[in-house]
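Our consortium's second objective concerns turning raw sequence data into structural hypotheses that experimental partners can test. To show how far this objective has progressed, the report includes one record in full. It was chosen at random from the queue rather than selected for favorable results. The single chain below, 311 residues long, was entered without modification.
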Amino acid sequence: MSSDTAPRSRRALLTAGLAAGVATVASALGRPLPAKAASGSFDSSSAGTAAVEAYNNAVSGSPAIGVLAQSSSTDGTAVYAVAGSPSGSNRGVYGASNSAAGIGVEGLAGAFGVKGTSSSGLGVGVQGLSDSGAGVSGISGSSAGVYGASTSGYGMLGGSDTGVGVQGTSSSNAAVRGDSTSGAGVYGNSGSDAGVVGYGGSSVGVRGESSTGVGVLATSGGTALQVSGKAQFSRCGKASVPKNKTYVDITVAGGLTAHSVISATLQAYHAGVGIAAVRANYPIAGKARIYLTKVASTTAATSVGWFVAEY
């Protein structure tokens, strides 16, 4: 039997069928069909070539790829899908996996693995929905798991009807961190509860730090600061006036300024004895001398409490 009448192999039949399918798509798009390679597969070196590799992968035993599209242009698009209807909830691309551990759509790139852009409608570039798990999950080995940025709106916005709008979890660092060059690093607002709540268990619930400014600022037309429980200050303490002495010197953490006010009280009753005065930055800067009206005891030291505030 001549080669012209020999039965065509399964590979040749698939290749011919795929060629016809690609020809139909190319014809519908109004573009010329890429050149066919001598091996019967499509020339992957041609710019804009669409190559279907499912059969080739099945034969070679490598992981199967349903459809492989390639573009060699530096700004080309390997796959371009358009849902043409100007209304409705149609989809440009839909990906699904039947496996419980499968991935519907996966993207891999040196810059953006998956990028979503929206110019109208709801204005959401990428949306993730889940009935029970995370709507969107971001994982990174060394950088931000999820990064949000905006030129005028919210960089990241989280909302919930009954749960937590945004939750951060960390085993060794800050669970939530806010940085700003001119506005608030972290801003909390509530119509009926606390704007910001911090819970530390056995540690610090809320911590404010500043190298030269105000660590925590409380402002209100009513009560600016309310403390329920003990209050502890680093610029206060107890000192002991030695027996037969009428004064004691103390060292104040952070030093004393022209706006420092020092208060002192006896911590035990001594008839006719009181605090006569407190002299700041004496006998040297950063110290203060607390004077008694007279010797409180000739046999034991006298305890004095002191507190420094700024105005």
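The partners drew two points from this record. The first strand starts at residue 50 and ends at 51. The longest helix spans residues 10-29. Both points have been shared with the crystallography group to help prioritize constructs.
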